[in-house]
Write a structure and sequence with these properties.
This protein has 661 residues and is of the alpha/beta class. The protein is globular, with a radius of gyration of 27 Å. It is built from 22 helices and 18 strands. The strands form four sheets. The protein has a seven-stranded mixed sheet with strand order 3-2-1-4-8-6-9, with helices on both faces. A six-stranded antiparallel beta barrel has the order 13-14-15-18-17-16. Helix content is 50%, strand content 14%. Its EC number is 2.4.-.-. GO terms for molecular function: hexosyltransferase activity.
Length: 661
């Protein structure tokens, strides 16, 4: 009699992974991402698979105990990995809930009824931004639909030209004699001035200098203050330009900016637990609540998160409205991008060590303490582990140290099933926003300064200056960020050398490590790919102004005595491309643009199907263009991954034939 054909170990592990993949294909058809029960079930499975994986790692993959280099390497990687896993599990618990408040805002918009609408002071904090950055924010703030508002520009740069521009625009200009307390101190100075006014505002809105509000920003945000316990309403941050990683990899049309996952998915999930937090710009706060906590905290350089804790400590709530109501300028340079994130990390560590930290004696709820601890885990574990994942395979290639002693079937069964399930769940709930390699590159780019900031901030929380994120400036040429690139280039070279030595010479990597050799080989090849992309991301490409939400529209162009209908594309504040009729260079005329008017223009370049025009709008028309670009319409950018376009964009970038977008 023939025996039952039991599969071998490798075949069984492939069946395990295939089963997880098959279930994943069905999830989008049966899961309602807005239902807490569905989300909780998905993450309960994730917890079970994570526990199974952790037990396997602890009991079957570590070097034997003893005073050996193998044990030091093996156990240290395990410790880093388990710390990162703990941070992931905390995030999974948070993501098991969701709160969307759009319907609530609909029901309570204009909750004050026939009474006088609340008075809102809009605070625009600035330090060194150029007029080109500031003017669109000021114009947008002036154009908000709310009837009772005043715009205040808080200038810590003490610039006379900005004072004159504010007077011309009819907005209030404030400066102070020093920069004590950085941004929080600047806002507190403004609060002190407002407190002396005949009419104290009911609410204050905070905008960064480069964030333009949509016309409904105040009316939608104020709707949630119908609840007298709400002290602050935070809205998401969207960006009208690509962040450095998107831009340098040429994927701005197919891959969302790095903060989309947080604002579109983590913050609504945090709001489900009542632990959404202020992110500075694009927020509205109740005057009496801020006054009750003594203004904006200055103990941390991330005063926004700390303000949420101070409000909660005093009994006020922070809520989140997941609607695109502002859009701003993402850091355009990679150095600025990394500096900004290192500052966030440092500020969070300062909060953890402050009077409002999770272990301090205060009135914070347990969930608020958990919120801070979760953020500490994220900054303190994710980035060091990302560096470790790059460095530890080198120990095998150069020193014959096997840090993970595991067979390929076991890796597939324990790690593969867990990792694949997490990818499936996160992409199901976020509608396809998690791309493994690109996510790893995003983390790796800032891993060294962020890790340094985490350690320094925890050990020495005080005495650190506020690092302003530079915006604007000349971005018209290729810039190689050598200092950022150097560690990745060195690690890439070491990985290539180590792999080559292991293949060519038996003196290196002579320990076969059983089937684990396949694990190390795959791990190394994956690292080669991540490091190569990280190196390319450090080459900053030139930028030009581009409005991601622009779509072709009809317009009329009058030139040479004739009025013709044309298609208008690639509209900026200074130029526009038209299609439908060819014009000679130097042709003068007038183009009629929707919501802007009749703008004088001249042809500066002839194209195959039209021309590129130089616009000469007057001041009123220029402001109308700002409102069209930034204050009206939907959120800019892409909110999900477009897989086919992403592969095309990456292929073009790696062939070094990408064109500016």
């Amino acid at each position: 009699m023939l025996g039952y054909p039991f599969p071998g170990e490798f075949a069984a592990s492939v069946i395990d992974v295939s089963l997880v993949a098959g279930i994943g294909l069905l999830l989008p058809y049966v899961i309602d991402r807005t239902r807490t029960l569905h989300r909780a079930l998905l993450f309960a499975v994730a917890f079970a698979l994570a526990g199974r994986y952790a037990w396997w790692r602890a009991t079957e993959t570590l070097a034997p105990a003893g005073w050996t280099v193998d044990m030091a390497a093996s156990w240290s990687l395990f410790a880093l990995e388990m710390a990162a896993l703990l941070g992931s599990l905390s995030a999974f618990v948070i993501m098991s809930r969701l709160r969307l408040r759009g319907a609530e805002a609909d029901r309570h918009e204009g909750w004050w009824g026939d009474a006088t609408p609340p008075h809102v002071a809009i605070l625009i904090a600035t330090y060194n931004e150029e007029l080109e950055v500031l003017e669109r924010t000021i114009v947008g703030a002036k154009s908000l639909r709310h009837p009772r508002k005043q715009v205040l520009v808080l200038d810590d740069g003490r610039r006379d030209w900005l004072r004159d521009y504010c007077a011309k625009q009819g907005v209030r200009y404030l400066r102070r004699p020093d920069n004590k307390g950085s941004k929080a101190g600047n806002i507190n100075h403004a609060l002190g001035v407002l407190a002396q006014d005949a009419e104290v505002p009911d609410f204050i809105a905070v905008l960064d200098a480069d964030f333009v509000p949509h016309r409904g920003f105040l009316s939608r945000s104020l709707a949630l203050f119908h609840d007298p316990e709400v002290g602050l309403v935070q809205t998401p941050q969207h960006f009208f330009n690509a962040d450095p990683i998107q831009h340098n990899l040429g994927v701005s049309r197919s891959y969302p900016d790095e903060q989309r996952f947080f604002f579109d998915h983590m913050q609504p999930a945090r709001d489900g637990w009542g632990i959404a937090f202020c992110c500075g710009t694009s927020s509205v706060a109740r005057w009496s609540a801020v006054e009750a906590v003594g203004g904006f905290p200055t103990e941390s350089i991330t005063e926004d998160f700390m303000l949420t804790l101070a409000l909660q400590n005093a009994g006020w709530r922070t809520v989140y409205l997941d609607e695109a109501l502002t859009e701003g300028l993402a850091p355009e340079g990679l150095k600025e991008y990394v500096t900004q994130r290192a500052r966030w990390c440092l500020g969070l560590m300062q909060i953890a060590r402050s009077r409002l930290g999770p272990l301090s004696r205060n009135n914070l709820r347990l969930r608020d303490r958990w919120s801070v601890a979760d953020s500490v885990l994220y900054w303190f574990t994710t980035f060091p582990f990302r560096l470790a994942a790059i460095c530890y395979p080198l120990l095998y290639w150069f020193f014959n140290i096997t840090v993970v002693d595991a067979s390929l079937p076991d890796v597939l069964t324990y790690f593969g099933c867990y990792y694949l399930w997490i990818l499936i769940v996160l992409n199901t709930l976020s509608r396809g926003m998690v791309v493994p390699i690109l996510n790893d590159v995003s983390q790796l780019i800032g891993a060294i300064p962020i890790t340094r900031a985490a350690v320094v901030g925890m050990l020495k929380p005080k005495g650190h200056p506020f690092s302003v994120t530079a915006k604007g400036g000349d971005r018209s040429r290729i810039v190689v960020q050598w200092r950022l690139m150097a560690p990745f280039a060195i690690l890439l070279a070491l990985t290539v050398i180590g792999l080559s030595l292991g293949i060519v010479w038996d003196r290196f990597a002579f320990d076969e490590a059983g089937d684990g050799k396949w694990v190390i080989l795959f791990w190394t090849l994956y690292n080669l790919l991540v490091l190569s992309i990280a190196v390319i991301a450090c080459i900053e490409l030139p930028r030009r102004e581009r409005h991601i939400t622009d779509t072709p529209e009809r317009a009329t162009f009058e030139a040479d005595g004739a009025l013709r209908k044309v298609w208008l594309v690639s509209l900026t504040a200074d130029t526009v491309r038209i299609r439908g009729h060819a014009y000679s260079e130097g042709t003068q005329g007038w183009i009629d643009i929707r919501d802007v008017g009749r703008v004088p223009a001249s042809v500066i370049a002839r194209t195959a199907d039209g021309a590129r025009l130089l616009l000469r709008p007057d001041e009123t028309q220029r402001e109308a263009l700002f409102l069209r670009f930034y204050a009206d319409g939907a959120a800019p950018g892409v909110t999900g991954v477009r897989t086919a376009a992403l592969l095309e964009d990456l292929g073009r970038r790696f062939s070094f034939t990408s064109r500016l977008r």
